[in-house]
Each structure stands twice: as C-alpha cells, then as structure tokens.
Design a protein that fits this description.
It is found in: Cell envelope. It is a single chain. By secondary structure, the chain is mostly helical. The protein folds into 2 domains: about 1-35 and about 185-340, no CATH class; about 40-180, A middle domain of Talin 1. About 60% of the residues lie in helices and about 5% in strands. It contains 12 helices and 2 strands. It has a two-stranded antiparallel sheet. α2 (about 70-85) packs across α9 and α8 runs antiparallel to α9. It is globular, with a radius of gyration of 22 Å.
Length: about 350
Amino acid sequence: MKKSLLLLATLGTLSACQSQPAADAALHTLANDHLVFMRQQADLLANQLTLLQQASSHYCQQTDQQTKPSLDVVKQEWRNSFAAWSTHQGQSGGPLDAEGLSFAFQFWPDKKDTVGKQVQRELAAVAKGGQVPDRGVVTTLSAVEYLLENDLSTPQRCLLLPGITAQLASNGSQLQAAWHDADGYQQQLAQMQRQGGSTALLTQILGQLSHRYDRIEKKFELPLNTVQHPRPLFAEAWRSEQSLHFLRTSLTSLEQEYRQGGMRTYLMQAGTEHQATVEALDKAFADTQAHLPAGDSLAHWLQGDNYADLLRFKLSFDQLGYQLKQRLPSDLGLSLGFNSTDGD
C-alpha cells in the first residue's frame, strides 16, 4: 500500500508573528534537531550494513574454521542491520525516496513469498555460472534472512551472500551521503521554512512521524488479521522469528524521533500552551511500550489465548495513533489528510 501525504494547513494566512525572533529560533531548532537525528539514523544504518558485509565476507572466505565467524555471528549482524533499517521504514518525502532506495533494503509485504522464489531461482542460476544480481528483491535484507535461516550449506549461502551484503552496504552509504548533502534535504527544509514558515515545516515533520506510525501499524495488523485467521507468515521477519523484536525497535525509534528529532522540544518551548498534549503523548508512548508483549517472535502471540495480549496492545497503539496523528496536529492548528490507494 502506497500512502501519499496531502499537506493541508488550516492556519489561514501566515501571520507576522512567524517572523518574530522567538518563533524563528524555535523553528530553526526544530529543523536542526530533525536533521541531526535523521543523519544519525542514516549513519547507524550505513555502519551496520558495513559490519554485515564484512561478517558475510569473512564467513564465506576459505580460511581456517577456527578464525572465521560462525553463522550465528552473521545472523546477529543481520539482526542489528535490520533493527537499524527499521528506523527508516515509512519515511516519505526525504532522501530515501529521492535516491530511489525505498525498496532497496526490504521487500515487504511479501504475500506470495516472492523473496523465497527469487532467491531460489538466483541460487540455481549462479550455481550454473550466472552473475550475482546487483538490484531487485534478491539484494534486500529480506533475501539475506532467507539465506541465513533456510537449510542451506555454507557453499550454497556463499553463492549470493557476499554480493548481496556488498550491495546493501553500498546502498546504505548512498543513503548516508544523501542525508549529509547540504544541497539536498537540508536545503529543502530551509526552503520550507522560508516560504511556508511554521505551517510547512511542522507539516513536513509531523507527516514524517505519521507515515512512520502507519508503517508500524501495517507491520502489526497484517499478521494480526482476525482471531480466527491470524497470518503469521505475513509478519516481516517470520523466517528468523524476529518480527516482534523489530516491531519493538520501530516503536522505540518512533518515540526517539518525536523526542530527539525536535518536535517535543518545540512543543515544550511554547510554555504551558501544549503541555497537556505533551503529557498525553508521553503517556501514550509509555503505555504502548508497556503493553507490547515480551519476546522476539510475533507468531507465538498469534496463537490461542496469547492473541488477547496483542489486542490489548492494539488499544494502546491506537491511542498513540490518535495522539500523534489527530490531537497533536490539531493542537498546532494543522490538519493532516491522507489519500490511500491499495497497491499491494
């Protein structure tokens, strides 16, 4: 499903107060904090993908078995890399889109096991002398998960693993460079502030948070489905049984983006004007984290009586969505509208 954000402002005309020094300083801090946080996330992803590439390369080298990393080491680097990627899921209108990398790190939803079929096809082709692909479904973290979790021999895995992880590391570096490009997103934010003042800048950053919430919601609700018909194979990391873990990392990074990415600071700088909203959001984040079931596997909680715990979590998560996507924009005099088309 592709969601495009329609930026709708209800502030009317931009008033002279937007040019006041205090307002300008608050907007500048918001834009700077947002940019610094997002660059840190891009740095983390690039670094983790490099570590995954290095571990994969060493694992596949024909060296002493006692000195080469184990499969478990490579799996842990994949887990770290996917967690770093989860902080970027749902981004819209930034370097991820501009660089054409929206689908370069993960293929999901995968309702027809496209990843598995494509990897199997490429394994057979490369075994016969074909070239390792450098783009598409088979160069994603989803494909790496297949190679690491399926019952394959080391020589089979190593037909694709070094090439795929090298491409992922390259894509991570490309995204990192785009975030640090002063003529890219940084200039876009500055232009928004100059031309649209608080309306444009707040709508952009709130839209980013909203899109990220929507992606987390999809990660949860697709496998949740109904109590009679849960769909564990629709979870994003069902092969490694890490889907609940990545749901947790996504929620944590969403809260970090709200807190460290400038929005909460912006609200607090207004004194008591937005205090009630800030307190409501703090409570909603805390409740959501508190009611997320323990463990790494989502499939476990989709079975039998465990399903009720996911429904309890959903109540808290829905409340977070209300606070983040409705109350907060309304409190700032903004309205975020969504146009959804089902492209899955």
